[in-house]
């Protein structure tokens, strides 16, 4: 029940077999952060920073950004908070960026591609995140990474910022896995990145070639499509090979059947919408790692998302 879920909510999330799974929240404002902590989030695996950059004539100053990042980070106390760098493109209006109109904005200059074209904007955001983190470990991650070269440029930019600012506290730099390309080369990315985090919303969109904003396709956009599951499995393998942590921050992490599969594939951090934190914590506490691994096997072997859901429902005793 919801009350039982709230009671478990403030406890550390563990599987019934004892393994620690961190249940984090995705947030997009200071108010979200406070709500997430109240609901038992153990950190944030995704702070969407677009809210700071859209619908205004000038980009936010580093001081303004730093103040908001600090407020978000402080709401979580000692718990980790991963701040995602700007993920905008031609479909989101930022008047101060002269982005050309595109026929296919989802396949255009967006995410890290924007940041690398406007390096002062991205470097400024990095400086603001470091200031916001102060003496705590800063976790910075970039959206829509699709090649090792992009990640190398990101790392070089961070190194330059660290050298110029003399920032001395620890910094972890991660890449989001949101494209089939990044899932397939996750092992290569994991060599250079401190962590990877799968964005299942975009990964599903790009794998299935189905626009996530097209309501006509909503039914088909299921992260339990075996093609998506296999890509997450490859990403998990790449992380394991290099001893890196794999997190999940797309909507699938908050879907109970998919959450079991993701844990079975190797994810140890699930970042979900704040409202789903209590339920996901409680759900995980009833599952063993063995069950999650069996769930992953079943999902990998399924012929379709529908078949995967049917099989998982039977296996995990949960009709959806
Ligand atoms: C995702 O793509 O799964 C993700 C977490 O990022 P966003 O939803 O902000 O694109
Ligand atoms: Mg995304």
What does this structure look like?
The longest helix is centred in the middle third of the chain and has 18 residues, at 148-165. An eight-stranded parallel beta barrel has the order 1-2-3-4-5-6-7-8, surrounded by eight helices. Helix content is 48%, strand content 12%. Helix 2 links the parallel strand 1 and strand 2 (44-47). The protein starts with a helix and ends with a helix. The protein contains 15 helices and eight strands. Helix 12 (256-265) packs across helix 14 (289-301) and helix 14 (289-301) runs antiparallel to helix 15 (305-316). It is globular, with a radius of gyration of 19 Å. 48% of the residues are buried. With 320 residues, the chain is α/β, with parallel strands linked by helices. The site of magnesium ion (MG) has 5 residues, from helix 10.
What would the keywords be for this entry?
alpha/beta; 12% strand; binds phosphoenolpyruvate; binds magnesium ion; phosphoenolpyruvate--protein phosphotransferase
Please render the helix and strand layout as text:
Blueprint lengths: L1 H8 L12 E6 L2 H9 L5 E4 L2 H4 L8 H14 L5 E4 L27 H6 L1 H15 L4 E5 L5 H18 L5 E7 L2 H5 L1 H7 L2 E4 L1 H9 L17 H16 L3 E4 L7 H10 L3 E5 L3 H9 L3 H13 L3 H12 L4
Parallel strand pairs: 1-2, 1-8, 2-3, 3-4, 4-5, 5-6, 6-7, 7-8
The structure holds phosphoenolpyruvate (PEP) and magnesium ion.
Magnesium ion binds next to helix 10.
Subcellular location: Cytoplasm
Protein name: phosphoenolpyruvate--protein phosphotransferase
Family: Belongs to the PEP-utilizing enzyme family.
